[in-house]
C-alpha cells in the first residue's frame, strides 16, 4: 500500500500507473490452464495507421475498454489484442504526401534511395511534383511510416488507459497476417468461392483502382440534361433522348423504354441511328426504364452508370466501352463506327477527359442540329469512391471476386440467419446489416490496382504466343506462403521464364484492405498458426465497431467465417454511435472537423475524457464541442472527488472496525447493494453508460449526504457507533472504487493503492453478498434518502436565514408523515450532529414530504 498524499491530484497518474501496469503485466492474457469458458475475447478494431487518431476513436475504444475491465474483474481471462490496419489507400496517400513520392512499378529498385521530403516541414507537395519510385521502394516507405504512426498510436492508447495486452498486437501487413490472408483466399478458390471475371467495374480514375459496392457513396453534383435526336431507320419522326452524358454517345448500344409505355411499344424491335456517329442500334424494352424520367426513353451506353451495366447484361448487348483507366476517351473508335464523319467526330474527343469530351460533343451536336432545345441544369446523385474526389466511371477489367450471397440465395439466407443469431447492442443495428445483405447487387470485388497490400497469391501461365491463360491460375502450396507473385517464382518455373512465351506472369494486384480486415478474428486468434490459442478465443465474445462499417467490416468478417467454418465469428456486436461537431455533423477527416485527442488528454486528464466517452450509450451519437467540453469537466470533478472522498474516508481511526450496527449505516450499504446489482445488470446488457450513471449518482449521494451525516460520529464518536460508521465508510469506498474502475482507471488505481492489495483492475467486481454480513435483513435502504431530505431542509433553512452552514441551531423542528417520522428518529443523532442542532424535534404531521417547520439559530453575540 502506498502513502496517501497530502494533496491528492490527477496530474501524473497516467505515467505513474501506466508504468506499473506494464511492469506487472496487469492486463496480460494468461492462457495457462485456461478453458474457453474462462476466456472473454474481443475482436478489437485495428485502426488505420495513417495520420492521427481523432476523438471518435477515443469515444468508441473507451466503450470497449469498460467492458474488458468489467469482464476481467469478474474473473475472466480477457483476450484484448490491438491490431494495426496498415495497408490500403489511406496509407499510400499519406506516404505520397509525407515523402513527396509516387509509385511507378516499371522502375527498378534503388537500394540507396532517399526520399525528397520527410513530412516535417509542413510543405505541401503537389502530385505533379512527386518523385516516381519503384514499387519496392514505395512499399519500404509505407512500412517505415506505418511503424512510426503505430508507435504514436500506441502511446496515445496507453495514455487513455486501454487495458490492452500489447504482447498480442498484430499488423495487417505483417508476415503472419499475409500468410493467413493468402491461405484463406486460396481456400476460397479451392471451394469455388473466389473467382475472376472480365466485367464492367466501378473505377476511380484518380487512384486507378477498382472500387467495391461497400465503398461507394452518393454525392449531389451539378449536371445538365441534353436532348438528342435519334433517327428512325424506317423514316419516322426522330426519337428524343434526355441524357446527362452526351460524351458517351459513341458508346451507345441501344435505346430502352418501359415495356408498358404505350408511347414506345410500336418501336420495340425497330432500330435507330445515333446522332453524329450514325451507328444503328435497337429499341428495346426493360422494366428498369422509368416512364416519368426525361422523355421516357433512354440510351444505353457502355457504361454510363450501374443501370447501364444491368441493361447490358440482361439484354445481351455488345460492349463499346470508350473510357480508359485514366478517365479519358480511348484513342481507338468502337468498331461499330464506320462512317468517315463518325470517325472524324470520334477523333475530336479521343484522349480528352470526360469534361472536355462533353464540351466537344455538345458543340458537334449543336452544329449538326441534333441537340434540341435548351440545355437544362440539374443536380443529381453521383457515385463516388468514399475516399475519392472525382465521380466514378465504369470500365471493363479483369478482377477477382469472392461470393457474398448477391447471386447465391442459399449463402444469402445463411448470412441473414447469422445476423439473427448474433446479439446486437443496440438491437436496432441488426436492421442495417439485414438491409445491406438483402440489397447486395454483386459479388465482393476484392482486387485492387494498388501497391501496399496483401498480394493476390496467383500466377498465370503464358501460352506459346506469350498471352496469359487467366482461366488456369497457378497457386502456391500452403507451406510456400506468404508469396509476392510480382517477385516470387511459382513451383516448376525459373525466374528467367517470367514474361516469356511458355513461361508465366505474376498477379500484380493486391487485395482490398477489407479482405484482410475481414479476417481479424483469425489474425488475432492465431488461426492456422496457434491452434491452442484459437481454440481458447474463437468464436470471439465481442466485436466492437462503428455503425458506418457494418456493411464493410462486420459483414465481410461474418462472410469469411461462414465460408471458412460455417460459424459466427463472435457472440455479441457492440456498435458505437458517431461523434458530432457542435453543428451536429459527423466528425470525419474528409470534412476537416475532427478533433485530435492528445491535447484533450493532456489538458483534462484521461479519466475525465474517458468519463465523457463512457457517458454515451452504444449506438447513440454524441456531440462534442472542444470549446465547451462540459461532460469532460464533470468527469474530472468526479475523479477529483473520488480522490478527496477516499482520503477523507481513510482518515478515520479504523482500529475497532468490523461490525455495522447503526440504522443509517445499514441503509447506506443496503442501497449500495442495490447499486451493485443494477450496475452489474447494465454491464451484462452491454449498457456501460447506464452502469456509470447508476454508480455516479449513488457516489454523489454518498459524498453529499452520507459522508456529511456520519463524519462527526466517525471522527468524534465512541464505541460501536463510531466503529459502525468507519466500517461502513471503508466498505462503501471499496465498492465505489471497484464500480468506477472501468471508467476512471487511474484515479481508482491510485485510491486502491492506499488501502487495497494488488491492482483494483484485477480485484473482484463487487457483489451484493459481500455487504450482506453488514446489512442484515431489517435494513431500510430508503432511510439515507429520507434523512438526506431532512438535511437539505436544514441547510435550506440556514441559507434562508442568511447564516453559514456551520452556525449552531438552538432548535429545529422537522415534520414528516407518521411512518417517515419514526424512521427519521433512527438517525436523529447523526442529523443533529451534522446540522449542529442542540434540540431536534421530529414530529409526525399531515405533510406529503419531509420539511423543516421551524428553526432557531444561535445569535452572533
Automatic annotation (TrEMBL):
Cited PROSITE patterns: AA_TRNA_LIGASE_I
Entry binding sites for ATP: 589
Subcellular location: Cytoplasm
Motif window: 'HIGH' region: 47-57
Catalytic activity: tRNA(Val) + L-valine + ATP = L-valyl-tRNA(Val) + AMP + diphosphate
Pfam families (UniProt xref): Anticodon_1, tRNA-synt_1
GO molecular function: valine-tRNA ligase activity
Aminoacyl-tRNA synthetase class Ia domain mapped to chain residues: 18-101, 130-624
Enzyme Commission no: 6.1.1.9
InterPro entries, per the entry: aa-tRNA-synth_I_CS (IPR001412), aa-tRNA-synth_Ia (IPR002300), Anticodon_Ia_Val (IPR033705), M/V/L/I-tRNA-synth_anticd-bd (IPR013155), Rossmann-like_a/b/a_fold (IPR014729), tRNAsynth_Ia_anticodon-bd (IPR009080), Val/Leu/Ile-tRNA-synth_edit (IPR009008), Valine-tRNA_ligase_type_2 (IPR022874)
Motif ('KMSKS' region): 586-590
Every Methionyl/Valyl/Leucyl/Isoleucyl-tRNA synthetase anticodon-binding domain range: 665-809
Keywords, sorted A to Z: Aminoacyl-tRNA synthetase, ATP-binding, Cytoplasm, Ligase, Nucleotide-binding, Protein biosynthesis
SUBUNIT field: Monomer.
NCBIfam families: alt_ValS, PRK13208.1
Domain-related comment: ValRS has two distinct active sites: one for aminoacylation and one for editing. The misactivated threonine is translocated from the active site to the editing site.
Function field: Catalyzes the attachment of valine to tRNA(Val). As ValRS can inadvertently accommodate and process structurally similar amino acids such as threonine, to avoid such errors, it has a 'posttransfer' editing activity that hydrolyzes mischarged Thr-tRNA(Val) in a tRNA-dependent manner.
Family assignment from sequence similarity: Belongs to the class-I aminoacyl-tRNA synthetase family. ValS type 2 subfamily.
Protein's UniProt name: Valine--tRNA ligase
Organism listed in the record: Leucobacter albus
